Amino acid sequence: MAQTSTASRPARAVAPPSPGTVRSLLVKIVLLGIVDAISLYAVFMLVLQDNWVVAIVVVAVSALVNWIYLSRRFLPAKYLTPGLIFLAVFQVFVLLYTGYVGFTNYGTGHNGTRDQAVNSLLASSLQRVEDSPSYPVTVVDRFGELGLLVTDPEGDAFVGTADEPLSRVPDAEFDGGRAVAAPGWTSLTFQDVIARTAEITALAVPYSDDPNDGALRTPDGSNAYRYLSTLEYDASAGTMTNTQTGVVYSDIGTGAFVADSGEELRPGWQITVGFDNFVRAFTESSIRGPLVYVTIWTFVFAIASVALCFGLGLLLAITFQNARMRGVKYYRLLLILPYAFPAFLSILVWNGMMNESFGFINQVLFGGASIPWLSDPNLAKVSAILVNVWLGFPYMFLICTGALQAIPEELTEAATMDGARGWGVFRQIKLPLLLSTTAPVLIASFAFNFNNFNLVYLLNNGGPRDTTTSLPVGHTDLLISMVYKVAFTGQNRDYGLASAFSIIIFLIVAGIAVISFSRTKALEEIQR
Amino acid sequence: MTTTDLTHLRNTARRAPHRRRTAGRWFVDTGWRHVVAIAVSVFAVFPLLFVVSSALNPNGTLTGSNALFSRIGIDSFWRILSDPQNPYLRWFGNTLLVAGVTAVASTLMGALAAYAFSRMRFAGRRFGLITIVVIQMFPQLLGAVAIFLMMSAIGDVFPAFGLNTHIGLIMVYLGGSLGVNTYLMYGFFNTVPVEIDEAAKIDGAGHARIFFTIILRLVAPILAVVALLSVIASFSEYLIASVLLIDPENQTLAVGLVKLVSNPRYADWSAFSAGAIMAAIPVVALFLALQRYIVGGITAGAVK
C-alpha cells in the first residue's frame, strides 16, 4: 500500500551506516541517564532500609540494561529489554510471589516480621508512666518522616523516629536549654505542628534498642513523656508477659504469641506454613464446599456463555448471509452496540434493571411482578449468563460473519451437486469448517469468561451470599471473584488462602489451555 | 463480502424463473431473517435506551427511571458534574491519563518486541515467543494479591510509583499487556516484506531508523487496533484499579462509578446514567469508527 512512498524515503538519507547519529546518541544517553538515576535512588533507599537483596537485584538489572544499550552487540535485546523488564516484574515475579504467598499465613494480623509484631504489640499497649519527667522536644522532619529531637534532663540532645530509637546528636542547636534544630533534619514550625497534629500525637519514639524500655510520646509537640508497655517481652525465652494480669503468651510456631488458654495476641507475624492453605482448601469442609461448587459453576458459566454467544452470533451471521436481505448495515450497527458500550457500565445498568422491587424488568416488562432475578441462587445464575450473552454475542456475530465469508461458495455448490440439501450442507460442511477456524477464538473466549470478574462482581457482587460458609462467598461467584473476596473483603483478609486458590485456578486454566492448544495446534503458527 | 454477494446473485438469478414472489415465499426467503434481526436488535438495544432515558430524566431514583422518556432534561448531567462527593471529572481525567499512557506505551513496547521476533534471528527466539504466550496464561487478575503486596512494598521505597499512584497502575497494566500485543503484532509484522528492510539497509539506514521511520508506518493499522483494544481494556478494568487506587480523587471511572451505584436503592440513578453516557460516548464513537479494523485485527490473529 504505502510501499512506493516508503521505498523512496530512504534514498533521501544516504548517510553512512553509522551506529547512531548525534541525536539518537543523545536520546540514548538521556534515557539511560533517567533509568540510572531512578536505580541509584532506589538503591540508596533500599540500603537505608537494609533491603540488600532487592538492592543487589536493582544494581544487577540496571548494569545489564546499560551494558545492552551501550554495547554494539545484542541487537535483539535492545528491542526486547523494555517489554521484558515489565513482563518480568509484573507477570513472572507476580506469579512466583503468588506462589510464595500461598505457602504463608499472610493476611490480617499476620502481615510483618516477628520483630515488627513484637514492636507493634509493645507500642499498642503503651501506658504513660505516672510522675515521669517531661522531656522538652522539637518535632523534626526528614524526607517526610517525622522524628523527635529530645533534650534529656542532663541537657543532651537525642533524635529518634518511629523506627529508629533515640540516638545522641552531638551538634544540635540549643535555645534556652531546649534543642531546637539538628543537622540533616528540618524543624517543624508551629503551623506545621498544628497541621500534622494527628501524625505527631500518634508518633512513639522507642527509648532504646530494647523494646521493653518503652517510648516517648508527645501530646502537644513541645513536651514528651515516657510511656511503658503493659506487655513485657522476654527475648531469650521468646515470650510476652502481661505485667498487669501476669498471663504469659509464648511463640508456639503458629505465627503469633498464644497463651495457655488459647488466647492469641494480635498482630502476629508472617511465617511459612507449607501446604497448610492447600490442605485447608481441600479438607476443611466450610472451605472445600464453596471451592467445589464455585469451580463447577465457573465451568458451567464459561461453557454456557461461550456456547450461547456463539450460537446466537452464528444464527445472526447466517440470517444476514443473504443477498436479498435489506438493511443489513443498520441491523449490524444496532447489534454491535452492546459490544461497543463499555462493559462495566452496561453490567451496572443490568444490575439496576434486574432489581427485584424497583427494576425496569419487573416493573415494566413483567407488570409489577417481583421476580428475584438477582436474589434467588438459581435465577441469579440464569441472569448472570443472560447478561453475559448480551455482552458477548456481538463479538461472536462479527467473528462468525468473517468466518462464514471465508468459506468458499464452491464447497456449497459441490455439495449441492452431490445432492445435499440446505441444512445438510450447513451441518456437515460449513459448521465443521467454521468450528475449526473459530476454535482459537472460542478457546480464548472460554478463558476470558472463566475469569470474568467484572460480570459477576459488578452485576450481583457474586451474590446472593451463601450463609452456610465462613468464607465471604456467594452463589454466583466465580473462582476469580472468590479469590478477590477472600483477599480483600470481610473482616479477615487471608492473602495466603487467596493465593493458594490462585495457584489452584492457574493449574486448572493452564491444564485446559495446554490440552486445547495441543488439540488445535494453534501454536504451530509460531513454530515456523 | 463481494464474492459471496456475487455468488448469491448468481444463485438467485438461476432460480428466478421458478419463483413467484408471494408473501409466504417472501417469509421463507427473507422475512424470517427480519423477524430474527428485529427481535435480537430489540434485545441488544433496550438496556441502552433505558440508560439514555434515565440520564435524561431529571428525577434521581431507579423507580423514576422506569417510564422511558417520560421526562426530558439535563439536570442529572449537572448533578454528576458538580457533585463534590463524586469527583466525576477527576475520574474521567484519571481514566484518560491511565488509558492513554498505557495504550501508547504498551503498543510501542509490543511493537519493539514484535519487530525483534519478526526480523531478527537469535538464540532463544522460538523459546521466547512460546514462553511469552505461556506466561500470559496466568491472568494478572489472579495475581491481584501479589500485585497489591508488591506495590505497597514499592511504595515504601518509591512513594511516586507505589500504591495509590497512576504510574504504579500503568506499570502493572504494561506488564500484563505485553504478551497478547506482541503476539497480535508479530503476525502482522511478518506480512511486511523483508525486502523493504533490506532496501533501506542498502541505502544506509540503521536498524533504529528502519524501525521508527519505515516499519512503524507500514504496520500503522495494527498499531491502531492494539492501541484501541488497550484503551478499551484499561477503560473497563476494575479489579486491579480498585485494589491499587485508594483515594477517591485518584480513582478511575470504573472504580468511581461502581461505588456510586453500590446501593441501587438509594443511588442517584439518573446521575449515574448521565455519567455512564458521557463516559461511553468517546469509546463507542471510537469503536464504531474503527470497528472494521478491530474485527480485522482480531480475526487476523485468530482465524487464519
TrEMBL record, chain A:
Domain (ABC transmembrane type-1) spans: 295-516
Name the principal localization, coarsely classed: membrane
Q: Name one GO cellular component term.
A: maltose transport complex
Name the family the entry cites: Belongs to the binding-protein-dependent transport system permease family. MalFG subfamily.
GO BP term (any one): maltodextrin transmembrane transport
Q: Where are the transmembrane segments?
A: 25-46, 52-70, 82-103, 291-318, 330-350, 382-404, 431-450, 495-518
Q: Which GO terms describe its molecular function?
A: ABC-type maltose transporter activity
Question: Which protein is depicted?
Answer: Maltose/maltodextrin transport system permease protein
By its UniProt entry, which Pfam families does this protein fall under?
BPD_transp_1, TM_PBP2_N
Q: What does this protein do?
A: Part of the ABC transporter complex MalEFGK involved in maltose/maltodextrin import. Probably responsible for the translocation of the substrate across the membrane.
**What PROSITE patterns does the entry give?**
ABC_TM1
The yes or no answer to whether the keyword Mitochondrion is present is no
TrEMBL record, chain B:
CC annotations in GO: plasma membrane
Mind listing the GO molecular function terms for this protein?
ABC-type maltose transporter activity
How does the record classify its membrane topology? Multi-pass membrane protein
- Coiled-coil intervals: none
Record-linked Pfam families: BPD_transp_1
Q: Which InterPro entries match?
A: BP-dep_ABC_trans_perm (IPR050901), MetI-like (IPR000515), MetI-like_sf (IPR035906)
Chief place of localization: membrane
Where found, per UniProt?
Answer: Cell membrane
User: What keywords tag this UniProt record?
Assistant: Cell membrane, Membrane, Sugar transport, Transmembrane, Transmembrane helix, Transport
Which GO biological process annotations does it have? Answer: maltodextrin transmembrane transport
Q: Any idea where the ABC transmembrane type-1 domain is?
A: 92-290
Give me the segments passing through the membrane.
35-56, 91-117, 129-154, 166-189, 210-235, 269-290
UniProt record similarity statement: Belongs to the binding-protein-dependent transport system permease family. MalFG subfamily.
Q: What is this protein called?
A: Sugar ABC transporter permease
Native organism is Protaetiibacter intestinalis
